[in-house]
Structures are given as C-alpha cells and as structure tokens.
Amino acid sequence: MLRKSILITSIMLLALCGCSDKSKDTAVTGAQGPSIGAPAAPPASPTPGACPTAPTRKFAKTRFVTNAGLAAGAFKRYIYTPYKEGKFKAGAPGHKRAIVKAAAAGLFVVDQLRRAKANAQADPTLCRVLLAPLDQLTSMMSGLAGKLKRGEVDPTDIAAASGGLEGFRRTAGSTGAGFKDKDVPSNVIGG
Question: How far apart are CA 66 and CA 63, in angstroms?
C-alpha cells in the first residue's frame, strides 16, 4: 500500500512539473526540455487577423487531433467515468485514489489542450475557427483540475466540462479535425 501511495504521489509531482510554463523555465535555465507535439513556449493567442495564411508547422492538424484525443481520453477515463460510477462519493471503495488520479488527469488534460492550441495556431483553418472554443474549454478544465487538486468534486463542473468537450469535438469535426478519445498510457497518470 505504501508503494502505491509513493507511486501516486510521484506521478502527481511529475504531472505538476510537466505543466509548468516552459518559457519561464527557458528564461531561468537557458535550456529547453523535449516537447512532443508543441513548441516550448506557445505563442500568444492571435487576433482573428493574426492567423497564418499557410501552415507554419509540419503536421499541425495531425498533432492537434492527437493532443485533443489524448485530452478527451484522459478526461473520460479518469474523471467522467469514475464520477458516473460513484467513485468520488465519500465512503466509496477507492475514493481517495480516484480523486488523486482525477486530479492528475485534470493536469494532463490541461497540458494536452495547451499543446493542441499551439498546433491549432499553426494551421490557418484551425486557428480561425478553434482558438476561442479551445480557450473556453481550457479555462473550464483548468478550473475543474484546480478543484480536483483540492479534493473538491462538483457534479455540475464535471457535467459542464463533459458538455464543453463534446461541443468542442463537434466544432473541431466541422473543420476537418475531428478527434476520438485516445487511450492514455497507464504509466502517465497511474493506471
């Protein structure tokens, strides 16, 4: 049991460290860590006229679909499904573990949405259509992740986040960047 607690705690710490502001880290150390699917320092959200006229990254749409799919998969597996199964209720078997995993998943979701935004900004169509809905979804998921980190589970927040995610999925699909839930490797969030 102690090994599981240590493992979950270390995963939480890794998730917290993985969601740090890379531009701040770069400025302090002068080095950039590896990043899959997104630049180290995401550019500022462009105004509608500031979207590129041609793709500025290779495979930006494919990367966007991957990041959005991972975010959706983590949300469904570690937050929405345990909530629907009643695992967040006080006294339920595995209650604390489910909340810790949901908090780690929330941080993972926010990081994947940050990466998806960086990739959307590199594609003209995605940039024009998806940036505002993506910012709204990221804000919603950040609030949910913050509450889960504090151990607070609000059913209305989880339902709203699920609805926001499905609405974003439909909007992305209308631009040709539809995504499906992707399985998150179990070692990323803790099984």
Answer: 5
